[in-house]
Design brief:
By secondary structure, this protein is α+β, with helices and mostly antiparallel strands. It has helices spanning 15-38, 46-71, and strands spanning 2-12, 79-83, 89-98.
Length: 99
């Protein structure tokens, strides 16, 4: 059985809100890249990067939680939301089985 993603647009955020999550998204990705390239617990920056990754992940999740409550987006236990940075649209993405 093959898994595919089904996307349903569930809402839209403002340009300012999009910019907030975009900054967090880029920071999260940058920290992950830095962590992967460093991968040395003895490095002086290691603990700082790990701490920053945790704080950024928390702020990232808080943004989604706040917008979920504000806009009352449809959700699913087997799905997650994604933002289209070009249109500010929020999609619910779910995995569906295809035979």
């Amino acid at each position: 059985m093959k898994k595919e993603s089904k996307r349903t647009i569930v809402g839209k955020v403002t340009e300012e809100e999009k910019n907030e999550i975009k900054l967090l998204f880029e920071r999260k990705n940058g920290l992950n890249e830095l962590f992967r390239s460093l991968n040395d617990p003895g490095h002086p920056l290691y603990e700082r990067i790990v701490k920053d990754m945790g704080e950024t992940a928390t702020r990232f999740q808080q943004w989604w939680n706040e917008k979920r409550d504000k806009y009352e987006w449809k959700s699913s236990k087997d799905g997650h939301w994604e933002i289209n940075f070009n249109t500010c649209e929020i999609s619910l993405v779910r995995s569906v089985s295809k035979s």
